[in-house]
Protein backbone atom coordinates (compact mmCIF):
# COMPACT_ATOMS: atom_id res chain seq x y z
CA UNK A 1 0.00 0.00 0.00
CA UNK A 2 1.46 3.45 -0.88
CA UNK A 3 2.26 5.97 1.85
CA UNK A 4 -0.82 7.87 2.87
CA UNK A 5 -0.52 11.61 3.06
CA UNK A 6 -2.82 13.91 4.97
CA UNK A 7 -5.04 15.49 2.37
CA UNK A 8 -7.56 18.27 1.99
CA UNK A 9 -5.81 20.73 4.29
CA UNK A 10 -8.41 23.36 4.95
CA UNK A 11 -7.53 27.06 4.69
CA UNK A 12 -7.35 28.56 8.17
CA UNK A 13 -10.18 30.85 9.22
CA UNK A 14 -9.39 34.49 9.91
CA UNK A 15 -9.66 34.41 13.67
CA UNK A 16 -9.21 31.76 16.31
CA UNK A 17 -11.23 32.38 19.46
CA UNK A 18 -9.83 31.48 22.85
CA UNK A 19 -12.22 28.50 22.99
CA UNK A 20 -10.71 27.10 19.82
CA UNK A 21 -7.14 27.93 20.87
CA UNK A 22 -7.68 26.14 24.18
CA UNK A 23 -9.08 23.05 22.45
CA UNK A 24 -6.13 23.01 20.09
CA UNK A 25 -3.62 23.29 22.94
CA UNK A 26 -5.37 20.56 24.96
CA UNK A 27 -5.53 18.19 21.99
CA UNK A 28 -1.77 18.15 21.53
CA UNK A 29 -1.14 15.46 18.91
CA UNK A 30 -4.57 13.89 19.31
CA UNK A 31 -7.15 13.98 16.55
CA UNK A 32 -10.84 14.77 16.65
CA UNK A 33 -12.55 11.73 15.10
CA UNK A 34 -16.12 11.82 13.86
CA UNK A 35 -18.05 8.56 13.96
CA UNK A 36 -21.63 7.62 13.11
CA UNK A 37 -23.89 6.38 10.36
CA UNK A 38 -23.62 7.10 6.67
CA UNK A 39 -25.33 10.41 6.00
CA UNK A 40 -24.80 11.69 9.56
CA UNK A 41 -22.70 14.56 8.17
CA UNK A 42 -19.25 13.41 9.31
CA UNK A 43 -17.42 14.83 6.27
CA UNK A 44 -19.45 18.03 6.02
CA UNK A 45 -19.20 18.84 9.71
CA UNK A 46 -15.62 17.54 9.93
CA UNK A 47 -14.41 19.84 7.18
CA UNK A 48 -15.94 22.88 8.88
CA UNK A 49 -14.75 21.84 12.33
CA UNK A 50 -11.21 21.47 10.99
CA UNK A 51 -11.36 24.97 9.49
CA UNK A 52 -12.51 26.42 12.82
CA UNK A 53 -9.69 24.64 14.66
CA UNK A 54 -7.15 25.49 11.98
CA UNK A 55 -6.37 21.77 11.58
CA UNK A 56 -6.06 19.54 8.50
CA UNK A 57 -9.22 17.63 7.57
CA UNK A 58 -8.92 13.99 6.53
CA UNK A 59 -11.65 11.74 5.17
CA UNK A 60 -10.95 8.04 5.80
CA UNK A 61 -13.05 6.89 2.82
CA UNK A 62 -11.09 9.17 0.47
CA UNK A 63 -7.80 7.88 1.90
CA UNK A 64 -8.91 4.26 1.50
CA UNK A 65 -9.80 4.89 -2.15
CA UNK A 66 -6.44 6.59 -2.73
CA UNK A 67 -4.55 3.73 -1.08
CA UNK A 68 -6.47 1.06 -3.02
CA UNK A 69 -6.48 2.94 -6.32
CA UNK A 70 -10.20 2.21 -6.73
CA UNK A 71 -13.55 3.42 -5.44
CA UNK A 72 -15.29 1.94 -2.40
CA UNK A 73 -18.01 0.27 -4.54
CA UNK A 74 -15.21 -1.29 -6.63
CA UNK A 75 -13.41 -2.57 -3.51
CA UNK A 76 -16.66 -4.17 -2.26
CA UNK A 77 -17.43 -5.64 -5.68
CA UNK A 78 -13.97 -6.98 -6.51
CA UNK A 79 -12.62 -7.94 -3.08
CA UNK A 80 -15.67 -8.09 -0.79
CA UNK A 81 -16.54 -6.36 2.47
CA UNK A 82 -14.07 -8.22 4.77
CA UNK A 83 -11.17 -7.05 2.58
CA UNK A 84 -12.54 -3.50 2.67
CA UNK A 85 -12.81 -3.64 6.48
CA UNK A 86 -9.21 -4.81 6.87
CA UNK A 87 -7.94 -2.02 4.61
CA UNK A 88 -10.14 0.50 6.42
CA UNK A 89 -8.68 -0.51 9.82
CA UNK A 90 -5.11 -0.22 8.48
CA UNK A 91 -5.70 3.18 6.88
CA UNK A 92 -7.38 4.58 10.00
CA UNK A 93 -4.52 3.26 12.19
CA UNK A 94 -2.06 5.09 9.96
CA UNK A 95 -4.07 8.31 9.94
CA UNK A 96 -4.27 8.23 13.75
CA UNK A 97 -0.49 8.50 13.86
CA UNK A 98 -0.63 11.83 12.06
CA UNK A 99 -2.42 14.10 14.48
CA UNK A 100 -3.51 16.63 15.22
CA UNK A 101 -6.25 16.65 12.60
CA UNK A 102 -9.97 16.19 12.22
CA UNK A 103 -10.80 12.74 10.81
CA UNK A 104 -14.14 11.67 9.37
CA UNK A 105 -14.45 7.88 9.48
CA UNK A 106 -16.65 5.54 7.44
CA UNK A 107 -19.82 4.47 9.25
CA UNK A 108 -18.75 0.87 9.85
CA UNK A 109 -15.20 1.47 11.04
CA UNK A 110 -15.98 2.14 14.72
CA UNK A 111 -17.58 -1.32 14.94
CA UNK A 112 -14.13 -2.90 14.94
CA UNK A 113 -12.82 -3.21 18.50
CA UNK A 114 -9.20 -2.60 17.55
CA UNK A 115 -10.13 0.63 15.73
CA UNK A 116 -12.16 1.85 18.73
CA UNK A 117 -9.21 1.16 21.00
CA UNK A 118 -6.83 3.09 18.75
CA UNK A 119 -9.26 5.99 18.49
CA UNK A 120 -9.54 5.97 22.30
CA UNK A 121 -5.76 6.23 22.62
CA UNK A 122 -5.08 8.81 19.96
CA UNK A 123 -8.19 10.92 19.58
CA UNK A 124 -11.27 12.48 21.05
CA UNK A 125 -14.28 10.92 19.35
CA UNK A 126 -17.60 12.56 18.52
CA UNK A 127 -20.64 10.50 17.53
CA UNK A 128 -22.79 12.49 15.12
CA UNK A 129 -26.14 10.96 15.91
CA UNK A 130 -28.82 11.32 13.23
CA UNK A 131 -32.39 10.04 12.98
CA UNK A 132 -33.24 7.45 10.32
CA UNK A 133 -35.34 9.90 8.28
CA UNK A 134 -32.50 12.46 8.19
CA UNK A 135 -30.07 9.71 7.13
CA UNK A 136 -32.44 8.46 4.43
CA UNK A 137 -32.97 11.96 3.01
CA UNK A 138 -29.20 12.40 2.75
CA UNK A 139 -28.11 8.99 1.46
CA UNK A 140 -30.84 8.92 -1.19
CA UNK A 141 -28.90 11.61 -3.09
CA UNK A 142 -25.96 9.28 -3.82
CA UNK A 143 -25.67 5.67 -5.01
CA UNK A 144 -22.09 5.07 -3.85
CA UNK A 145 -22.79 3.16 -0.64
CA UNK A 146 -22.61 -0.56 -1.39
CA UNK A 147 -24.36 -1.54 1.85
CA UNK A 148 -27.46 0.37 0.74
CA UNK A 149 -27.82 -1.30 -2.65
CA UNK A 150 -30.66 -3.43 -1.26
CA UNK A 151 -34.33 -3.88 -2.13
CA UNK A 152 -35.33 -1.79 0.90
CA UNK A 153 -32.61 0.74 1.82
CA UNK A 154 -34.75 2.29 4.59
CA UNK A 155 -35.04 -1.10 6.30
CA UNK A 156 -31.28 -1.59 5.89
CA UNK A 157 -30.60 1.80 7.49
CA UNK A 158 -32.90 0.93 10.42
CA UNK A 159 -31.16 -2.41 10.93
CA UNK A 160 -27.69 -0.85 10.79
CA UNK A 161 -28.75 1.86 13.27
CA UNK A 162 -29.99 -0.70 15.78
CA UNK A 163 -26.89 -2.85 15.33
CA UNK A 164 -24.48 0.06 15.60
CA UNK A 165 -25.90 2.59 18.05
CA UNK A 166 -24.90 0.60 21.16
CA UNK A 167 -21.31 0.81 19.89
CA UNK A 168 -21.40 4.42 18.69
CA UNK A 169 -22.42 5.29 22.27
CA UNK A 170 -18.86 4.53 23.32
CA UNK A 171 -17.62 7.69 21.59
CA UNK A 172 -16.37 10.36 24.00
CA UNK A 173 -19.03 12.87 22.95
CA UNK A 174 -22.43 12.72 21.23
CA UNK A 175 -23.83 15.53 19.13
CA UNK A 176 -27.25 15.41 17.51
CA UNK A 177 -26.91 15.88 13.75
CA UNK A 178 -30.13 17.37 12.43
CA UNK A 179 -31.48 19.70 9.76
CA UNK A 180 -30.10 22.96 11.14
CA UNK A 181 -27.32 25.14 9.65
CA UNK A 182 -24.02 23.23 9.66
CA UNK A 183 -22.32 25.94 11.69
CA UNK A 184 -24.72 25.31 14.57
CA UNK A 185 -23.61 21.65 14.75
CA UNK A 186 -19.97 22.75 14.49
CA UNK A 187 -20.51 25.22 17.35
CA UNK A 188 -22.01 22.42 19.45
CA UNK A 189 -19.01 20.19 18.69
CA UNK A 190 -16.65 22.97 19.80
CA UNK A 191 -18.56 23.60 23.04
CA UNK A 192 -18.60 19.86 23.81
CA UNK A 193 -14.90 19.49 23.00
CA UNK A 194 -14.06 22.45 25.19
CA UNK A 195 -16.09 21.09 28.10
CA UNK A 196 -14.48 17.67 27.75
CA UNK A 197 -10.90 18.85 27.32
CA UNK A 198 -10.70 22.01 29.41
CA UNK A 199 -13.28 21.64 32.17
CA UNK A 200 -13.53 17.91 32.79
CA UNK A 201 -16.00 16.95 35.54
CA UNK A 202 -14.18 16.63 38.89
CA UNK A 203 -13.65 13.11 40.19
CA UNK A 204 -16.44 11.88 42.49
CA UNK A 205 -14.16 11.85 45.60
CA UNK A 206 -13.45 15.60 45.26
CA UNK A 207 -17.14 16.38 44.89
CA UNK A 208 -18.03 14.48 48.06
CA UNK A 209 -15.02 15.83 50.02
CA UNK A 210 -16.11 19.40 49.27
CA UNK A 211 -19.54 18.94 50.87
C1 LIG B 1 -20.00 2.37 5.30
C2 LIG B 1 -19.98 3.74 5.24
C3 LIG B 1 -19.33 4.47 4.15
C4 LIG B 1 -18.20 3.65 3.53
C5 LIG B 1 -18.71 2.29 3.12
C6 LIG B 1 -19.30 1.51 4.30
C7 LIG B 1 -20.70 1.71 6.44
O1 LIG B 1 -18.79 5.68 4.66
O2 LIG B 1 -17.12 3.52 4.41
O3 LIG B 1 -19.68 2.48 2.12
O4 LIG B 1 -20.44 0.54 6.71
O5 LIG B 1 -21.52 2.40 7.11
P1 LIG B 1 -19.70 6.94 5.13
O6 LIG B 1 -20.15 6.68 6.53
O7 LIG B 1 -18.73 8.08 5.06
O8 LIG B 1 -20.81 7.06 4.15
Question: Main traits of this protein?
Answer:
single chain; Rossmann fold; five-stranded parallel β-sheet; disordered N terminus; binds shikimate-3-phosphate
Structural description of this entry:
- This protein is of the alpha/beta class and 211 residues long.
- The chain has one domain: 3-Layer(aba) Sandwich (Rossmann fold).
- The chain is 52% helix and 10% strand.
- It contains ten helices and five strands, in the order H-E-H-E-H-H-H-E-H-E-H-H-E-H-H.
- It has a five-stranded parallel sheet.
- Helix 3 crosses helix 5.
- The radius of gyration is 18 Å and the shape is globular.
- It starts with 17 loop residues before the first helix and ends with a helix.
- The structure holds shikimate-3-phosphate (S3P).
- Residues 38, 42, 61, 72, 106-108, 145-147 line the site of shikimate-3-phosphate.
Amino acid sequence: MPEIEMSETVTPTATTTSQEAEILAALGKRLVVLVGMMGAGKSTIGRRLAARLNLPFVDADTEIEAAAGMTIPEIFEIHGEPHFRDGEARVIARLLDNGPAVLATGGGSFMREETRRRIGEKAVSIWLKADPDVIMRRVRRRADRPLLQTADPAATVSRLISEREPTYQHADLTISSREVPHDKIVDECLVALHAKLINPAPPIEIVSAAR
